[in-house]
Write the structure tokens for this entry.
Amino acid sequence: MAASATLGSTSVLRFYKKPEFLKKRPSSQLLSFVTSQLRGIKLSYNLPDVAPVKPISSRFTPALQPVARRVCPFTGKKANKANKVSFSNHKTKKLQFVNLQYKKVWWEAGKRYVKLRLSTKALKTIEKNGLDAVAKKAGIDLRKE
């Protein structure tokens, strides 16, 4: 059984026998002893009775969540590109977003409320023509929601 320690990139210490002071201590005490005594030295030692150590930092993989687009599904309205004009008439690009609202709308055919994200223009159209007519024209199936 061999262990090696690396000082910088040149010198290597090798232990072919397990030293006596390492035999008497459990692996948790061994690790704290080695780190306190050999601070700044890269040390690797193969212990057969200890499970392999996992890296401290692993790659973070967030759960994928769908991003809500800023587009009204009923009217198709989306952000408008415009200029922001300062007092000195300096123009910078900006986006004018649609006024999207989360709204629970009563669906008469389904006898229930349907939670929708729609523009205020679509809300006025639904109040005028009815939810079924507007959804049919937009090609939206309300049974899924």
In short: The chain has a mean pLDDT of 77. Helices lie at 20-23, 27-37, 120-129, 131-138. The two ends are 64 Å apart (CA to CA).
